[in-house]
Write a structure and sequence with these properties.
By secondary structure, the protein is of the alpha+beta class. The protein has seven helices and 20 strands. Strand 14 and strand 15 form a beta hairpin. Helix 2 runs parallel beside helix 3 and helix 4 runs parallel beside helix 5. The protein binds zinc ion. The site of zinc ion has 5 residues, from loops.
């Protein structure tokens, strides 16, 4: 049996009391602290104190979610420029914590890149659309417009990420803006081809040979059924260099003699004009045509269709203005042209 002396008992009693007192004091201080203070996190961004938050996990979770999802589905990605740092702290209970404010600050510091769709014309971005559907609609409109063009533009869509951008407001306007220069370019091509065609000439030696040929010409009539609406010579409107044979629009116009076509193009007041060079220095003009049936250099026989009646140029109604020239000077067609078209 162990015997404990009275002294030892006493010492133990004092020791226990001291421990108890310390424990009670510590608990009291803890209770006072708990009653007066609360645990928080101090938030720092770029070393600068930004405020207190209650839950580090909640704030971090919100930030991560924002970085992943963004505020809208147009957000492509977000770059976070400064990451918040947290320090555990005890502050008085009445100190405000601002969990949402920290999220707002983080959002402000971010670079947001939005997903947009660039319309690409011949490898160059020309405009941006917010949705793929609208971008596709523009491309479809442009492709429909350029369907008949000789020189088509390559129109494509590419996905882009932009911090700031101007999106197209009106699909039709955007499509028209894209098609305008393509259309212009194609019109220039058509014009070039036309100019080239018009530049086609009959070699001079052939014309000279034809002109010097002695010929017994019997001029026919340009249209089979007609009404003469204006004769050769002085008219109220001035000197009429030919004779007007009115006939319905599209009526075939026949060459009045054999010859070579020297002109089939637009000529100011004459509108669409066909000129035929005949033997012996004679030339005939068929003016105001609606369309041509021959081209420059074609050899025609008397009666061949060279064009169709129209009302192009300086004309008040469908008719064929026939002009006959001898070495450049006009002659009254009615004194020469007559009878059947077929010699
Ligand atoms: Zn006339």
């Amino acid at each position: 049996m162990i015997r404990v002396s009275g002294k030892t008992k006493h010492a133990c009693g004092i020791f226990g009391k001291v421990i108890l007192t310390i424990l009670i004091s510590a608990l009291s201080i803890f209770a006072i602290v708990l009653a007066t203070y609360k645990p928080v996190y101090s938030v720092y961004m770029d070393g600068e104190f930004k405020g207190y938050v209650t839950s580090k996990n909640k704030v971090q979770g919100d930030i991560e979610e924002y970085l992943q999802e963004g505020d809208s589905d147009r957000v492509g990605y977000i770059l976070l420029n400064s990451r918040p740092e947290y320090e555990f702290d005890l502050v008085k209970k009445d100190v405000e914590t601002k969990d949402d404010d920290v999220l707002a600050l983080v959002k402000d510091s971010c670079d947001i890149y939005y997903r947009v769709y660039a319309i690409n014309v011949n490898d160059k971005d020309v405009c941006l659309e917010e949705t793929l559907e609208d971008a596709q609609a523009i491309v479809d409109k442009v492709n429909a417009a350029q369907k008949s063009y000789t020189k088509k533009a390559k129109v494509m869509i590419s996905e882009k990420f932009e911090k700031e951008y101007d999106a197209v407001a009106d699909i039709t306007v955007a499509a028209n803006d894209i098609i305008k220069p393509i259309k212009k370019e194609n019109e220039a091509i058509v014009k070039k081809v036309q100019t080239y065609a018009a530049a086609k000439t009959v070699p001079q030696e052939i014309l000279d040979a034809l002109k010097s040929q002695s010929a017994d010409l019997k001029f026919g009539l340009p249209v089979t059924s007609y009404v003469i609406t204006s004769r050769y010579g002085w008219r109220r409107s001035g000197y009429h260099t030919g004779c007007d044979y009115a006939a319905p629009m599209g009526t075939p116009i026949h060459a009045v003699e054999d010859g070579i076509v020297t002109c089939a193009e637009w000529k100011g007041n004459y509108g669409y004009l066909v000129k035929v060079q005949h033997a012996g220095g004679f030339e005939t003009y068929y003016a105001h045509c609606s369309r041509f049936a021959v081209s420059v250099g074609d050899s025609v026989k008397k009666g061949d269709v060279v064009a169709y009646v129209g009302s192009t140029g300086n004309s008040t109604g469908p008719h064929c203005h026939l002009e006959i020239r001898y070495n450049g000077a006009t002659i009254d067609p009615e004194t020469l042209a007559s009878g059947s078209n077929n010699a």
